[in-house]
Design goal:
By secondary structure, this protein is mainly α. It contains eight helices and no strands.
Length: 187
């Protein structure tokens, strides 16, 4: 369910694009308020905001605004690469800051794996995010708007799902089933 909520603005962008007869600018005009709505709904439910939502909102406003003002679709297309590069950099840099890398901070309350596994997962997410940014750049520079929109919705999301499934198989080999039970007994 969280995945659908995270994809809410993108899905509205896609729906607006298709129902407007492939009008990139109408779709852009939809994704901006949809991103504000996403952050607002999350705030209303949890009384906090997620960093990812705020970063994406800021970039959607900046690059979506430039797309509408300058009537140039390339600005919003750049946003996808920049978001991926920022997250890729965050994953990779987090390995050198603090006790835990970013993936470990996000998942350690749910699963327990050895430190080297966390670092490999974190590096994987970093490299994957950087690669998705470059793949997006390639697609929007070499294909038309309709192809890019379909790639954004089906290609990037599909590749991410495949990556998460592969990561789950990798994690399953390394999860320590005893540790969560020990923690439960100690409480």
């Amino acid at each position: 369910m969280k995945f659908m909520f995270d994809m809410f603005p993108v899905l509205l962008f896609y729906i607006a694009y298709k129902f407007s007869g492939d009008n990139f600018f109408i779709a852009t005009a939809v994704i901006i308020p949809a991103s504000f709505l996403q952050v607002g709904l999350y705030w209303r439910k949890h009384r906090r905001v997620e960093t990812m939502h705020v970063v994406v909102l800021g970039l959607v406003v900046i690059f979506g605004g430039l797309t509408l003002i300058l009537h140039d679709a390339e600005f919003l297309k750049w946003k996808v690469s920049i978001v991926n590069w920022l997250f890729g950099a965050a994953f990779l840099i987090s390995q050198f800051i603090g006790d835990k890398c970013l993936v470990e901070r996000m998942l350690a309350t749910s699963i327990s794996v050895p430190k080297p596994v966390w670092l490999r997962l974190n590096t994987g997410w970093g490299v994957f995010s950087l690669a998705m940014g470059f793949l997006n750049l390639y697609v929007f520079k070499h294909f038309d708007d309709a192809t890019w929109v379909n790639f954004k919705v089906y290609g990037l999301i599909g590749l991410t799902i495949v990556f998460v499934v592969l990561q789950a198989f990798y994690l399953a080999r390394h999860i320590d089933p005893e540790e969560p039970e020990q923690e439960a007994r100690e409480e």
